[in-house]
Amino acid sequence: MFTGIIQSIGRIRRLEPRGGDVRLEIHAGKLALDRVALGDSIAVNGVCLTVVELQAQGFAADVSRETLSLTTLGALGLDSRVNLERALTLSDPLGGHLVSGHVDGIGTLLERDEDARSWRLKVQAPDELARYIAQKGSICVDGISLTVNRVEGAVFELNIVPHTIQETIIGEYRSGTRVNLEVDLIARYLERLLLGDRAAEAQSGGVTLELLAEHGFLK
């Protein structure tokens, strides 16, 4: 588990194809590696990866074919900058929200506008994720815990303060930038709970207005 509070900006220093998979070697920047051991988890742009090798000022991690196809990691190149966060421990403050490091979909930045010293971002999410995104709720973008300011359909808006712009790769975002999205864990589990016994049915259609009315959530 992670918090969505980025601890360092890393840099890709090597990409080694391995039979369809890729091994990434990442310079960890200011990320403290003294607490990291082989087998530990580190979130890279919001993707939970397992440390398979510790190196001077960095680490290596394998990225499976599925992860390459479902996240933006497959588009990384040499010297690409990435957000890094070590896994949460029980003694760490939960400064953001609970993040699993399992990407739900890829979004696209539609607009970036300046608002005093902050930025306002408008992001297009995949249609199937729209029901999990709520105004003033939490969402994880490239591993960053952020608050949704507004939402309309599958498009949501974010306000990015100067500290976040400086300490993450958001400063590099431009119109068309693709980002990893992870919706709030509570929203996903709430949907399954509302399905009740229907959750066991194959290819369940998810929560519908009819289902909510049946269980007394709508009048």
Helix amount: 10-25%
Number of helices: 4
Radius of gyration (Å): 18 Å
Structural class estimated from helices and strands? mainly beta
Give an account of the 3D structure.
The protein is mostly beta strands and 219 residues long. It has 2 domains: 79 residues, Beta Barrel (Elongation Factor Tu (Ef-tu), domain 3); 83 residues, Elongation Factor Tu (Ef-tu), domain 3, CATH 2.40.30.20. The protein is 13% helix and 39% strand. Strands 1-2-5-4-3-6 form a 6-stranded antiparallel barrel. It has a 6-stranded antiparallel beta barrel with strand order 7-8-11-10-9-12. The radius of gyration is 18 Å and the shape is globular. The model has no long low-confidence stretch (mean pLDDT 92).
Structure, briefly:
By secondary structure, this protein is mainly beta.
Give the arrangement of secondary structure elements.
Elements (H helix, E strand, L loop, with lengths): L7 E11 L2 E7 L13 E4 L2 E9 L2 E6 L1 H6 L10 E6 L18 E11 L2 E7 L13 E4 L2 E9 L2 E6 L1 H6 L10 E6 L1 H11 L13 H6 L5
Antiparallel strand pairs: 1-2, 1-6, 2-5, 3-4, 3-6, 4-5, 7-8, 7-12, 8-11, 9-10, 9-12, 10-11
